[in-house]
Amino acid sequence: LKEAITAYTGLSPATFFTVLAVSLAFYYVVSGLFGSSSGPTHHQERSVEVEPLPPPVQVGEITEEELKQYDGSDPKKPLLMAIKGQIYDVTQSRMFYGPGGPYALFAGKDASRALAKMSFEEQDLTSDISGLGPFELEALQDWEYKFMGKYTKVGTVKKEVLVTDGSSTAEATEAAEAAKAAEATEAAEATNREAPNAGDNAPSEKPVGEPVETAKTDDAEKKHK
């Protein structure tokens, strides 16, 4: 072996083994440095991917203005979206509905009309579905079934009824009808209270007996004749 080392390398056996040992030590030092820098990074990435999502939080009945707070701009809050007044937690699909996602403009809103029309126009980002055709309503129904099966319902959208001059709303109509009914009831009660007083002040019905007495007088006069 010593002769072969000397013949093939031109080095003495002691020098050859010294160079071999130094090379192995250098390799382990370099691999250890690169391994320690990349190892924890991969471990951290795996821990982020495996981290479970927090459970959905029920928000109850909130207004559309309050719903805007859950559009994904605050990573500490859940990502919510509404269809036909029903609010769903879509946090698990943040890549689609979160900031930068293809459907990010639907987050934090009741965009029923936009979903029915598959529209990304600003004027269609509303819960008003009046005037939609049968095919659009069917598409909206499909979206609702999808959300019901995939996401958790966490609340409902509270409808705000605004009464403005020159406009009529259901709430205003009901209030007017209730006021009229109350006035009619008060008028009836007032009439009932006045009726007994009117009876007390009315003239007596005793004069009705006078014709009876007159009839008796006529009979007596006939007998006398």
Automatic annotation (TrEMBL):
Skewed-composition ranges (Basic and acidic residues): 213-225
Main location: membrane
Gene Ontology CC annotation, any one: endoplasmic reticulum
Region (Disordered): 165-225
UniProt superkingdom: Eukaryota
Pfam family, any one: Cyt-b5
Transmembrane annotation, as ranges: 16-36
Matching SUPFAM superfamilies: Cytochrome b5-like heme/steroid binding domain
GO molecular function, one term: steroid binding
Subcellular location: Cell membrane
Keywords: Cell membrane, Lipid-binding, Membrane, Steroid-binding, Transmembrane, Transmembrane helix
Gene3D superfamilies with a match to the protein in the record: Cytochrome b5-like heme/steroid binding domain
Biased composition (Low complexity): 169-190
Domain Cytochrome b5 heme-binding: 62-158
Similarity annotation: Belongs to the cytochrome b5 family. MAPR subfamily.
Protein name in the entry: Cytochrome b5 heme-binding domain-containing protein
Organism: Opuntia streptacantha
Lineage, top ranks: Eukaryota, Viridiplantae, Streptophyta, Embryophyta, Tracheophyta
